[in-house]
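Deliverable D4.2, example record:
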Amino acid sequence: MHSAAPAFSPIRVLIADDSAVMREALCRAIESTPTLQVCGTARRGEEALQMVRDLKPDVITLDVDMPDLDGIEVLRRIMFESPRPVIMVSAATEQDADVTIEALNLGAFDYLHKLDSGHAVDPRRLKKELIAKIEAAARSPLARSSRSVQTAEQPPGIAVTQRPVTPEIVAIGTSTGGPQALQEILPNLPCDLPVAVIVVQHMPPGFTAPLAKRLNTLSAVDVREAEHGDIVRPGNVYIAPAGRHLRVRRRPEAKESLKAQICLSDHPASMHKPSADVMMLSIAEAFGKYACGIILTGMGADGLQGMTAISHAGGLTIGQDEATSAVYGMPRVCAEHGVLHKVISLPQMPAQILQALHYKPKD
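Output generated by the structure prediction step:
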């Protein structure tokens, strides 16, 4: 007599999209994975809301453009009535980029773009990204909201209370969940921040400019999408443009306060462009022990090499904890490799940055 195979509950996904072709493509991709199950499909916004109430899916894929109620209004109602992970499906146009940034601000877990430079995304790539994001969404804090939130234990590392060296630049790397995380950090930094902040946020082309614009309206510091040749100035936040690598170079001939410059390039070829590793490696080389590296929520391992380099150079390295990460991937690998000096929750991050900088408000 054979013992029964262990039972498991597949991740139940609701697909809401007005395009029959897209609904079919998403269904095929999801149903091809044994751990996922399509529990329903909706063509209209009101229909999607009713199916959320009736089916209580684990994860929802939601088209930005929907009849009767657009994706933003559907998302807003889902988050009010029955919060759960929502992945926005966007055409990756300039208009959809603005809407997607708004959706992330309203609590969407992530987004999936179905067009790439005006052409349909390769089905194999679409499937790979879709499955990875659904699985990550199902493990997110929002999906586990009934479970009490506890702060993750800090891995072995160097206790950071008082450091003789004050950082001269802050480098932040993040991916999934990053826009929300940045919105909790940057608006809580003062306008007279004594250093510059360089950010790599994984996004498709066209999305980082709207993100920078939104964050700038919320912040006292000046937030902008970085441009080639920008002089790195204190009190400014530079977000690497999607599709370009960002490096920071020293300017030996410049005055102390203007001693670094941003360089954008298309090389090397890599999974992520921009890459947190590329950016952080350049900052470790340029600033050494005067660098502060911060790794936030995100899938994958981008940032491990860069955070390692900053740590080995004597700089300060900080990671977001598991409890407040939308996806505990990028911070996890850094913690597991022992390159983090400190692991803290997202709400603590602005105060930790100011403490590291020995910041004192002006009278």
